[in-house]
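During the reporting period the student researcher (J.K.) took over the structure-prediction task from the postdoctoral fellow and processed the backlog of single-chain submissions. One of the processed entries is reproduced below for the supervisory committee.
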Amino acid sequence: MRVIDFHIHIGTQDQFLPWVMEFFKKNNPHYAENFAESITPQEAVAFLKSHGIDRSVVLAEYAPKASAMVTNEFVSQFCEGHEELIPFGCLDFSDRRPYEEQARHAVEKLRMKGFKLLPSYQHFYPNDRALYPFYEYLQSLGMPIMFHTGTSIFHGTRIKYADPLLLDEVADDFPALNIVMEHGGRTFWYDRAAWLVSKYPNMHIGIAGIATKHLPKFFPRLEQYRDRFVFGSDWPGFADIRGLIDRVYALPYGSETKEMILYKNAERLLGLVG
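J.K. obtained the following structure tokens:
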């Protein structure tokens, strides 16, 4: 079965903040020992293939007070010429250019295929009307957007910005904008993320960072909405990607549901179908 990892981070110790690197050293010593100082696209592709990953979404990140500065330019250059690596951009809230202008540059010049924003890391409310021209632009392109939702352990994060319900009006105002709630509102907002999926057909949940075996408990209607859940590892935050895949296989769902989680939903969101 094919697998698309919808959530990986590429960077080095020069781009991740010290407490993030300490987290990686503790939870993923292989990354710390082999890739912390440098990593090439060829090394990344080979490593991911060794864990059963066919294609991966590589995420830019502008969060200098909480986690990392991994620029759109870096991600674009890293992924260039490697179809296995799919670049996703991020907004830089310290940049004075309008958000839509940043996005146009990222898409038209850097060839980004989607975006991820981190409200709790970047300290903004996702329903801020100032973001609406940016959302309108993505909707016009049929391009997906991911949001970090729920908790985080890193210094500098502000969890009040990561409530999934802040995406309620965004989903309603932009019904053709595919939204992925990464981490599903972990750990105390799973029910809110599940409700949003049931209300809006453009809402999805990225399962990165959620205990896989507990998905049936956290999302009792997952099979009913199996077209809305997307696999991701959050590597290098989580080391054993193949183990995560095996845990999806072990879930008490039919093969069609597992295929949708592991690659079919990602294919649709990325426009890779057909």
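The committee noted the following: The chain is about 40% helix and 15% strand.
J.K. will present the remaining backlog at the next meeting.
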